[in-house]
Write a structure and sequence with these properties.
three-stranded mixed β-sheet, mainly beta, single chain, 68 residues, four-stranded antiparallel β-sheet
Length: 68
């Protein structure tokens, strides 16, 4: 398993490849590989989507994604 941390100014549901992954501002588990990240709710954030290859992460060193 791999780890991502998606930050945003408020709590939102994080979507990975269109599927619910968890909440923003928490470390989330995900399988290794290429994923597209977005969030549920209003599309009032940038970037609109983050594509990333997630590998070689740990719970203490997750892949970090920031939406503004």
């Amino acid at each position: 398993m791999e780890y991502v941390f998606v930050s945003f100014k408020e709590d939102r549901t994080v979507l990975a490849d269109g599927q619910k992954l968890g909440q923003t501002n928490q470390t989330l588990l995900i399988i290794k590989g290429h994923h597209s990240f977005t969030m549920e709710g209003l599309q009032n954030y940038l970037p609109a989507k983050v594509d990333a290859v997630i590998e070689h992460t740990t719970s203490l060193s997750p892949y970090k994604i920031e939406f503004n």
